[in-house]
Amino acid sequence: MAETMENPKAGLPDAADMLLECKGVSVSFPRYGAPVSEALRDVSLDIRRGEVLGLVGESGSGKTMLSRAIMGLVPPPGEVTAGTIRFEGKDLGKLDEEQLRRMRGRDIAMIISNPRGELDPLQTVGQQIGNVLRHHLNLTRRQIRERALDLLKQVSIPDPQRRMDAYPHELSGGMAQRVVIAIALACSPRFIISDDATSGLDVTVQAQVLELIRSLVSERGTSMMFITRDIGITAHYCDRIAIIYAGEIVEVAGREVFFDDPQHPYTVLLLAAFAQNERLRRYWLGGDKVQEYTGPSPVGCPFQNRCVRVEERCRGEHPALLERQPGHFVRCHFPVERP
Amino acid sequence: MQILTYIGRRLIFVGPQLVGILLVTFLLLKLIPGDPAVMMLGPFATDDGLARLRTELGLDRSIVEQFGIYLWRVLHWDLGTSWQTTMPVTSDLAQRFPATLELVTLSLLLALAIGMPLGVVGARNRNGIVRKFADIYGLAAGALPDFWFGLVLIFILYTILGVVPAPLGRLDFTIIPPPDVTGSLLIDSVISGNWPALRNAAGHLLLPVLTLGLINAAPILKMTLSTMERMLEADFSRYAEMCGLPPKVVARKALRNSLPSVITIVSVLYGFLIGGAVLVEIVFSWGGAGQYAVQGVLNADLNPVLGFVLYSAILSLVIYLIVDLIYFAIDPRTR
User: How far apart are CA B208 and CA A234, in angstroms?
Assistant: First the structure.
């Protein structure tokens, strides 16, 4: 973004420039008669002001858990067991529930997937946008109505006046997604988490909605964490991309570097899955041998059982997240080198 | 407009439904052994007298004919006479049905007032003391028979403490009843400004309403608790939390979404209690419709039973219609 002009140390984190800093965040769930299951392990991620960070991972990798940890809404009995999350310098772990609640939706907003199931079926679109406005901002009834209508216009909902009084079941998937975006934007938050926001939509609608999110976010200079399973989407919409696997960040890099020089085998696997080159794809996806998926390994590198480049060291030693080039972090003993 | 069409369509089916219900009841009653003529004339009746009475009552005709005659009379709102009270069934029921309705309605209101708040608070705080109380209450009230509970209440509040009037009917004999307008003693005494009657009727209502209310709060409590719990975990509640809405607002959303289930259980209880309150009616000598019907069954007095079934069926249909209208009002998806 604009940082190259104003910030001479582009690419290097600068404290004043930071909006959200996660340091060594771990989330675990206690289990009866078994060791605790760790949903997130030692996750460190920074997001700068105005930056769009893509967070990519398969289901169960901890993407959503990270967003919930940031929101302070880890579902019980899970809890944040280590690390700090700072938002604009404030340690969110030190805030009480009421202070956290006031931040949610106002400073940190969420765009969710499957919005038709997540909106209250008994309230109109106008009421649901109004709810958020009323509880976070001091507005009169009329101001709320005007603002809600204005928001619907901003997310390009056709015939917004009529949609104000529509119920969620009367909306199409794409329309409901726009409503959720309007709710996220309602209080002009500084940080938006988009959690797989377009996964339930048709491809054409998906593109429209993504374009809408991007333009609204960049217009306002809002920072965003863009969670997705589709690594292809990040190429168009994100400044920086982080890959998460089994609750750990395995690679982080700026967009150009990321697609030009991916170094973690899992990243390469994700990219290769889209590749036109048949030979490349077969190699990285493990060829013809049908893999019995055993899940992430508890000892050594979590990715070892699926890695085509696995070696003895990976079996026993857990790799650390190392900065290979400035701003490019990789968690692998044997990073992929460019040929 | 849509609602009117819906009501219209529902009303079309009311007639056939009622005939069906009457037919089944009629046949079932005919299966019960017992000859009304013998019951009416007693042990010293002559064969001749019995035969004459049977002809008079139409009992010598075929069942199909008997049912046809009965239906024809029902069409003219003549439900026959009860040989026990020697009164037309319509006038008997006009007196007794409101007594039961008043009792059941107030009991269910009390049950709602107890069950819903307990369920809501219990669902919101799963480890709280209210939840523990609600669990124990639900278990206890579900296990106690209502008539036994009524007897315990009588023993404590009437026999020992003497704070309520004797459990004999709806009004003391010394009190002049208000003129009959709605059939509900409370409403009628208010209309006529008869305050002693109002106080006395309320006193008589207290124990049976307490009995039925406390017992029937249990199913309402359980339904509210489980539905509310599910709604608080539903996606829309989680999303509301993410939007930073206060817990109270989230709970209110969940409650609104739980209402249809609660209303359903209330309507089922209502229909059930019209007849199901009979044991409590007997304990308190209430003189209600259930008691009337049971007496009819025991004494082969057909008309009161059929009349009671007809009234109950109509009432149930009305209640279900009202419930549907409430659904319309709450849930836009049904519109």
Answer: 69
Domain boundaries, chain B: 2-75, 96-334
Q: Is residue B317 within 8 Å of residue B14, measured between CB atoms?
A: yes
**Closest chain B CA to residue A169:** B333
What predicted TM-score, i.e. pTM, was given to this entire model? 0.83
* Beta-strand pair A108-111/A191-195: parallel
Best B243, B250, B331 member to test A by mutation, with max A CBs in 10 Å, is B243
A134 part of contact set with chain B, CB < 8 Å? no
Classify B60 in phi/psi space as left (phi over 0), alpha (psi -120 to 50) or beta: alpha
Distance from CA of A190 to the nearest CA of B (A): 14
**What is the CATH number assigned to the segment(s) B96-334?**
1.10.3720.10
Residue type, B14: V
Interface probe, candidates A101, A120, A194, chain B, greatest B C-beta count within 10 A: A120
Per residue in B227-266, pLDDT (tens digit) is 999 999 999 999 999 999 999 999 999 999 999 999 999 9
- Tell which residue, A158, A156, A101, A151, has the closest CA to residue A126: A151
Question: B227: which chain A residues are within 8 Å (Cβ-Cβ)?
Answer: none
pLDDT tens digits, B154-189: 999 999 998 888 888 888 888 888 888 888 889 999
Cross-chain Cβ contact A110/B330 below 8 Å: no
**Out of B243, B246, B330, closest to residue A122 by CB:** B330
Distance (Å, rounded) from C-alpha B159 to C-alpha B147? 16
CA B100/CA B85 separation, integer angstroms: 18
DSSP letter assigned to residue A169? G
- Closest C-alpha to B212, from B282, B317, B117, B163: B282
Show the beta-strand stretches assigned E in chain B: none
Q: How many residues are present in chain B?
A: 335
Q: What is the ipTM of this complex?
A: 0.85
Lowest-pLDDT range, A66-80, A166-180, A204-218, B264-278?
A: A204-218
